[in-house]
Design a protein that fits this description.
It is built from 3 helices and no strands. The chain is an all-alpha fold and about 90 residues long. It is elongated. The mean pLDDT is about 95.
């Protein structure tokens, strides 16, 4: 069972990922509107989403099978956190 502090940490981490995701969406939309986005950016967005989903599922399942179901949500979320952060860094480097 998830203790309240672990639930709060997970919810806070999820909120942080959501905020950073909005920044990535804004950066991508600005790039499309201004014509500064890489030509493959729209295809990259789609393929990254699918790959991130399957990686998050794999990490969550790994924790479940290891006997740590309480770590499963955090393991899945950490995949999204890493990928969103990497996208933000990449899009602001230009």
């Amino acid at each position: 069972m998830l203790d309240p502090s672990a639930f709060f940490r997970l919810a806070t981490a999820g909120f942080g990922v959501a905020l950073e995701s909005q920044a990535v969406i804004g950066l991508r939309l600005a790039g499309f509107a201004l014509g500064t986005a890489r030509p493959d950016e729209s295809m990259r967005m789609q393929s990254e989403k699918v790959a991130a989903f399957f990686e998050a599922q794999r990490e969550a399942a790994r924790e479940m099978l290891a006997g740590h179901p309480e770590r499963s949500p955090g393991a899945g979320l950490s995949v999204y956190r890493r990928r969103v952060h990497a996208n933000r860094r990449r899009l602001t480097r230009r």
